[in-house]
Design goal:
Blueprint (H helix, E strand, L loop, with lengths): L3 E2 L13 E4 L4 E4 H4 L4 E6 L5 H18 L3 E7 L11 H11 L5 E3 L4 H5 L4 E2 L1 E6 L4 E5 L15 H11 L12 E4 L4
Parallel strand pairs: 4-5, 5-6
Antiparallel strand pairs: 1-10, 2-3, 2-6, 4-8, 7-10, 8-9
Length: 184
């Protein structure tokens, strides 16, 4: 399990636009359709990464807690499914249904969206305000597989609370750590 840190994504950067297939509904979903009234969390995840598996339940809880506050969540998998078939769209749908993802699970087949966001790892988290300007790019929290720290979502929850309270973005944004995206 290779540990990869997320790349820098400057605060204030506009979210790159996209339209991708939602693996659950088999319908195209655009960022404009899926964004939240008060903010949007975009997460690059995948099915097989131990770092994502470690936080999956927390992602569901996080989305359920904040969607009622006008924050929408979008999950995207950009992994090469030829070499990593466990991340194939039909298995993404299976996992999303099994875990009751309260957000769309989109497939970035061309990897263009992941490249536009300079995504590096799974999970990789981006928080945008109502105007789709970046306010946070970093870790969910300090928990990692095997480090015995509880998965709380503390860092991203603080970023979202600051956004909702019209406070400045977090000054200390620690990079996310996970498996490197599986590029073609």
């Amino acid at each position: 399990m290779a540990r990869t840190e997320s790349n820098e994504f400057k605060i204030g950067t506009k979210a790159p636009d996209f339209t991708l297939i939602n693996t659950v509904t088999n319908q195209n979903v655009s960022l404009q359709q899926a964004k939240g009234k008060n903010g949007t969390v975009i997460m690059f995840i995948c099915n097989h990464c131990p770092f994502v598996i470690h936080v999956n339940d927390a992602l569901v809880k996080l989305a359920n807690d904040y969607q009622e506050k006008g924050i929408n969540f979008i999950a995207i998998s950009a992994n090469d499914v030829e070499n990593y078939p466990q991340d194939a769209p039909e298995l993404m749908k299976e996992l999303a249904e099994k875990l009751h993802y309260p957000f769309p699970y989109l497939y970035d087949e061309t990897q263009k969206v992941a490249k536009a966001y300079d995504a590096a790892c799974t999970p990789d988290f981006y928080v945008f305000d109502a105007d789709l300007q970046s306010v946070y790019h970093g870790q969910l929290d300090n928990a990692r597989p095997g480090n015995e720290k509880p998965v709380t979502g503390k860092d991203i929850r603080q970023a979202l609370d600051n956004l909702l309270a019209n406070k400045s973005p977090l000054e200390n944004q620690k990079p996310s750590v996970g498996c490197g995206i599986k590029w073609k």
